[in-house]
């Protein structure tokens, strides 16, 4: 079976760790993001094929999909590019920021998926060893922010809820095809840019969510994510939720050491 995967948002954080993990396991990887210099370094390190593409630009997405097809096709897609801007209330939010979150987390995911579906279908047409068909897989990286709202979640909650809904719609629409549609929703992940971007560059406060607890790392998420692709291809993990042990919901993060309760507690 063709093992070539397209990973969007590959230039940092979870996307870059995902590219590394796939490459370690022998997959061919196409790494997609806007920053060419970072992609080039990752390509040198992992052997990935880098494509510079802003996923909010539909024409650029079509060119990216054509390049994927011309350079060997793909049997797998990870829609990881995304992010948050701001923690303002609904009342105080800025529509331009909401629009840009919707553009990347929802519309970009849709454009990439639509442009690559014909490429994924092509991969399913080539069965091996007497099999009638091969398989393809799509995984959307949403968030626990797409499953539970919280004050200040605003546009990010709205965008990730929408990405969650799009994933479910797609699974219905592709029923009957040998294409699985999966979703991974992480809680708190310490990546170098996510909170910095969310807080519009405020480096001092960007570290606060990760203080006094052990958050997930990009590598933790990549390990679980790639594990979903490594399952037998008829196994569709619809929704995988992953959080640090210290975080039991979007509202509950235990700060300080973890300790087993005594009998009195
Ligand atoms: N960190 C967390 O706590 C957390 C938790 C749950 C879910 N998530 C989700 O996980 C995903 C990755 O998060 P992360 O923490 O790894 O964030 P990150 O380090 O900020 O990475 C975001 C990636 O998306 C790319 N990207 C952004 N806009 C893009 C565009 N228009 N076109 C193409 N690529 C674009 C960025 O690359 P360029 O700037 O080079 O384009 C970057 O590689 C996101 O969808 C995020 O919402 C994160």
Strand content: 15-25%
State the separation between the terminal residues, measured CA to CA. Answer: 53 Å
Q: Which geometry do the CA atoms define?
A: globular
* Whole-angstrom Rg: 19 Å
Total strand segments: 9
InterPro entries: NAD(P)-bd_dom_sf, Sc_DH/Rdtase_CS, SDR_fam
Keywords: Oxidoreductase
Family: Belongs to the short-chain dehydrogenases/reductases (SDR) family.
GO molecular function, one term: oxidoreductase activity, acting on the CH-OH group of donors, NAD or NADP as acceptor
Describe this protein's structure.
With 265 residues, this protein is of the alpha/beta class. The chain has a single domain (4-242), classed as Rossmann fold. Helix content is 41%, strand content 15%. The strands form 2 sheets. It has a 7-stranded parallel β-sheet with strand order 3-2-1-4-5-6-9, with helices on both faces. Helix 3 runs parallel beside helix 4. The relative contact order is 0.14. NADP nicotinamide-adenine-dinucleotide phosphate binds at residues 8-15, 33-35, 38, 54-56, 80-83, 104, 108, 141, 143, 186, 188-189, 191, 193-194, 197, 218. It holds the Pfam family adh_short. InterPro entries: NAD(P)-bd_dom_sf, Sc_DH/Rdtase_CS, SDR_fam. This is SDR family NAD(P)-dependent oxidoreductase. GO terms for molecular function: oxidoreductase activity, acting on the CH-OH group of donors, NAD or NADP as acceptor. Belongs to the short-chain dehydrogenases/reductases (SDR) family.
Brief summary:
This protein has helices spanning 13-24, 36-46, 58-70, 95-124, 154-173, 194-198, 203-206, 218-230, and strands at 4-8, 28-33, 49-52, 76-79, 136-141, 179-186, 189-190, 216-217, 239-242. By secondary structure, it is of the alpha/beta class. The strands form 2 sheets. A 7-stranded parallel beta sheet has the order 3-2-1-4-5-6-9, sandwiched between helices. Strands 7-8 form a two-stranded parallel ribbon.
